[in-house]
Amino acid sequence: MTNKRTRLLAAIMFTDMVGYTALMQEDEQKAKENRDRHRKILQELIDAHQGKVLQYYGDGTLAIFNSAIEAVECATRIQQELQKQPKIPLRIGLHTGDIVYDNEGVYGDGVNIASRIEGLAISGSILISGKVYDDIKNHREFETVSLGSFDLKNVKKPVELYAIGNEGLAVPNKQEIHSRPKDKVKSLAVLPFVNISPDPDNEYFSDGITEELLNVLAQIDGLQVTARTSSFAFKGRHEDIRQIGNQLGVRNILEGSVRKAGNRVRITAQLISVADGYHLWSETFDRQLDDIFEVQDEIALKISNRLREKLTLVAGKDTLVKIPTQNIEAYNTYLKGLFHANKWTVEDTNIAIDAFQKAIDMEPDFALPWSGLSGIHIYLGASGKRPPLEVYPRAKEYAEKAVQLDEQSPEAHSSLATAYFYYDWDWERTLQSLDRAIKLNPNYANAYLLKALVFNIKGKYDLSIKTMQKSQQLDPLFAPGLFAYASILGMSGRYEEALEQYDKLAEISPHFPDAICHKGILYSVLGHHEKAKELFDEALEVPGSEAFAYASLGSWYADTNQPEKVQEYLDKLLEGEKSFPGQPVLAGTALVYAVMDKPDEMFHYFNRSIEAKENFAIFIRGFQVLTKYQSDPRFTELLQKMGLDN
After folding, report:
1. Is the pLDDT of residue 404 over 70?
2. Whole-structure pTM value
3. What are the distances in angstroms from CA 464 to CA 249, 300, 453?
4. CATH of domain 328-423
5. What is the distance between the alpha carbons of residues 248 and 475, in angstroms, rounded to a whole number?
6. List of E strands, 215-263
7. Mean pLDDT, range 505-534, rounded to an integer
8. Dihedral, CA atoms, 470, 476, 480, 485, nearest 10 degrees?
9. Predicted confidence (pLDDT) per residue in 70-86, tens digit
10. Which stretches of 406-478 are DSSP H helices?
11. Which CATH number fits domain 187-316: 3.40.50.850, 3.40.50.10610, 2.30.22.10, 2.40.30.10?
């Protein structure tokens, strides 16, 4: 069957049942009865007004009309009919514009605007655009209420909105529209595809295909895609789809399997609705390994088309996947590197470095392994496994190479932003590169995390928290993200909320480096000194936390006036320059002297910390113990050295 495209000017109507997912979880039978009644009434009334339903999507519809007057009259009748018992809460949005539709669905700017308008409506209301208003304003049977102009996502100019105010219809005020919560209709998590290859070592390939597919889907505008870390937390766990969806905060799950044998690949994929476990789409792809990018593209396009009534931008595209390299062997080697890099152990990191380098040797113009090398070297320095000045310059060099090779790669821009952050302390260029990465991939959780850290160190705590919440929404089970969020909350004075986040982190990663110390500091600030001491002692047993644990204990003993114990931990910190040189031993020493009220020594060690690129130093604004020193000119000099004086 041919896929004929039709282009026309139409009045576009989106409807959406409010609270359908929650009702489905509470009373599945009632939810389905409401949905069936909703569809029956809509179909009857849309037909009666010469309209056409183009798509049903679970709890909503997309319909078009030849006349805006017919569309508004139909919408009014629908809302009035659904006010009768059993009452069904419904939102409706209307706009007139140019659309294109085919066998796969409907798209165009008009569809995007109508969808955005519906998303701003409240239960029982009908919102229309200024274009629809112009068509009906002389028809006295319609009462309208002006709501003002609104900026809609991916719409260049503000759109004037009106509500239909006929009897029985809800009319939102402007504040209600601004405070409307974001829908999760457009949300998706990609679970790790299962390796069913004869060779179990091909797990790297199934994981890699999953991650690459996730990255493609994440770049679809209008679709919220859970980050890899949170999705892969369910690898090997046989949990109910609904429970997974609720934990990740998504409405749809993509899962599947990969079988690789020689040069043949079989990929099975299925898209599942979290609300009812219903399979929205499933398909099996048998291909040659050389066709792997076509398979990724085909899967992504079919998913986007299946959910397209709520998406934008993708609809007109013939392809989503940009082939990163023609060298399949280099790509395969890159996937092996990615597999080991994501394990975050010293041994696997070394394997990943070798694999990325081999991929580069095979294909020097392949950008992704350059980004991979950059990320690993930043990790080695930031985690205290290598001295920062040993690895950060190489990380920046690799990131610059990646951007040079592929300016459209979000991974490359994110890697460069990370190098600007950790090595250059160039906050403006960090933000510029992060914004570029987010523009290319709106679901880049790590990019939002790094932006939040920039805002935090510059003292913009409210903006930092808001940005961090976006990262958490995209990657709720990412341990470093939870640690960053808890730290930001603590530095902004929201201690109880911070403790809650540290408790969440403990459930996911009980021995996350420095987290126990940070939690102990909060208890100390709140006056629970003995509890703080217990946590500092506990942190001594966590690899990677030695420097911060020594600094925390030294500070605790200084605060309790036990000079001999203070000196013991100062000695341990100084020894740490050799035994764990990548950890913030100098900044930790400075903190102990701060508690001891010895500013000369404190500023000496903070200056040394800055010279050594200990990134702990960039957070000095957030430590309560340093508040009393902030009027000292030397404190301002420290900020100037780190570019934080404005």
Report:
1. yes
2. 0.70
3. 22, 33, 7
4. 1.25.40.10
5. 8
6. 224-225, 252-261
7. 92
8. 50
9. 999 999 999 999 988 88
10. 410-419, 427-440, 445-457, 461-474
11. 3.40.50.10610
